[in-house]
Write a structure and sequence with these properties.
- Keywords: Coiled coil, Signal.
- By secondary structure, the protein is mostly helical.
- The protein has a single domain, classed as 2-Layer Sandwich (Protein Binding, DinI Protein, Chain A), CATH 3.30.910.
- A two-stranded parallel sheet has the order 1-2.
- Helix 2 runs parallel beside helix 5 and helix 3 runs antiparallel to helix 4.
- The C terminus is likely disordered.
């Protein structure tokens, strides 16, 4: 009787195991090196170049004011002895105020550029994630992992790296998209 129970239990176990193995399908995985992706993706390069050019242009304007300030400060040194202490104190206070205003202007410019580029970069990253998700579905991947600066994979065989495929597909899609000069809306609370 015990042998019969053992045989029945083993046969149930064998049937249940064979059913589960029939359900398991091949898991197709790959990974994308996100730091390489962002370096080689044309839209990311264009975005970086756009904000670099804006920073240089606005920086030149501010640099001209800083140069004028430095000239005024140099002139102050030579004129202070000739015009007396009262004049020197008044003019010195004006120069300090101007220096402070220039510092605030530099900070404001930096924050403005960071905010504007951050909005566009967030949109770009979101679009890339969506694209990779669609790419994975279309090509039958169960998982696509990300590596790079914020590594979630410590090791993977290079044969599973689809970074070049993703970069090529993204760049092809970007080239096919008509270019518009729309600026994304900057959040109202950030303007205050």
């Amino acid at each position: 009787m015990k042998k019969a129970l053992v045989i029945i239990a083993l046969s149930i176990f064998a049937v249940s195991c064979s059913d589960k193995t029939a359900e398991v399908k091949e898991v197709k995985t790959a990974y994308v090196d996100t730091s390489v992706l962002m370096k080689e993706y044309t839209e990311a390069k264009d975005l970086e170049a756009k904000y670099k050019a804006q920073a240089e242009e606005k920086g030149r304007q501010l640099q001209a004011e800083i140069t004028r300030f430095k000239q005024d400060a140099a002139n102050f040194q030579s004129q202070a002895q000739a015009n007396g202490q009262a004049w020197a104190q008044q003019r010195g206070a004006e120069l300090q105020k101007r220096e402070q205003q220039l510092g605030y202007a530099q900070q404001a410019l930096s924050q403005q550029l960071q905010q504007e580029s951050g909005v566009e970069m967030d949109s770009l990253v979101s679009g890339v994630k969506k694209f990779i998700k669609e790419y994975g579905k279309k090509n039958g991947y169960s998982y696509i992992y990300g590596t790079g600066d914020a590594a979630s994979i410590l090791y993977a065989e290079e044969k599973f790296d689809i970074t070049k495929d993703i970069v090529k597909a993204l760049n092809d899609k970007y080239k096919a998209t008509p270019k518009t000069e729309e600026k994304p809306a900057v959040k109202e609370e950030a303007k205050k």
